[in-house]
Amino acid sequence: MIAEGTPAPDFTLPDSEGRMVGLSSFKGKKVLLVFYPGDDTPVCTAQLCDYRNNVTEFTKRSIAVLGISADSPESHKTFAAKNQLPFTLLSDSSKKTAEAYGALGFLGMAQRAYVLIDEEGKVLLAYSDFLPITYQPMKDLLLRIDRA
User: Fold this and answer.
1) 111, 132 in Cβ contact below 8 A?
2) pTM of the model
3) How many domains does the structure of the chain reveal?
């Protein structure tokens, strides 16, 4: 996983509408990158719905949430609509962004991970779960964010 305190690698990825979204466009804002293995799988759906259910907690902390997986923009569009996800999903089909953040697992799939980036583009928090069948409870994430 990328080291806390290091500069966050810039990236530009397509969203569910095919628009290109770059990390640099969030300069001056906190951003939470949420890496996950894939759309419409049981654990990933539970994970992303947990972020959806807690989106007001991120809004209160002025944090933009970006979900990232290797799935296509079309898959993201269907997945986001089906689960009413109120944040942007980005398609990392080349897996280069997951690799740059150290969130690429040994089987070539994105790990379940998050990276909190501060307003200046520095990594404040980084966490990766090596077991793809679980994810860190939201309560733990929010406590870590409040301490950062």
Assistant:
1) yes
2) 0.93
3) 1
Note the pLDDT of residue 73. Answer: 98
Q: Is the dihedral of CA 81, 86, 92, 95 positive or negative?
A: negative
Q: Which of 44, 68, 103, 115 is catalytic?
A: 44
Q: Is residue 7 part of a domain?
A: no
What are the C-alpha distances in Å from 90 to residues 66, 134, 143, 146? 7, 21, 26, 26
- Pairing of β 112-117 and β 20-22: unpaired
Residue 141 lies in a domain: no
pLDDT above 80: residue 79: yes
Tokens 């860190």, residue? 136
Q: Which of 10, 20, 41 lies closest to 91 in space, CA to CA?
A: 20
| Catalytic annotation present for 44 | yes
Rg for the chain, CA atoms, rounded: 14
